[in-house]
Design a protein that fits this description.
The protein is an alpha+beta fold. Helices cover 40% and strands 16% of the residues.
Length: 129
Amino acid sequence: KRRTPQTKRFKIFGTLQDVFDAHKIYQTSGMIPEQALALFALSTIDAVLTLHSCGVVHNNIGLDSFLVVKDLDNSNSSWFLQLIGFGDKSIILNCDKDVCGESHYDQDYFDLANVLHILLTGGIEVSLK
């Protein structure tokens, strides 16, 4: 007897930028709720660390680099972020962090810090100028 593959159902709510912009337009209580900020912060950090553990550097992380997704098949209605937007700036390293060094990841870390700063401050970007 053949088993039918299980399909998962998801709802994509747009990018983190879309959610942030919608909150600014329709906000009733000021900042994004603390629980949502915590989920976003931990999810963005986890995504970047996972990416780096695979030897991949994104090099263009922003609020528009994360899709906000809800798992419709999970009874807990779990939410998660999906890292997207791998383009011509992304690179795959063919060496260990020990050999390549951490400098390849610096742009991702700066971009990640900027994403978190924007979320926590309500829209203020970090500038190197």
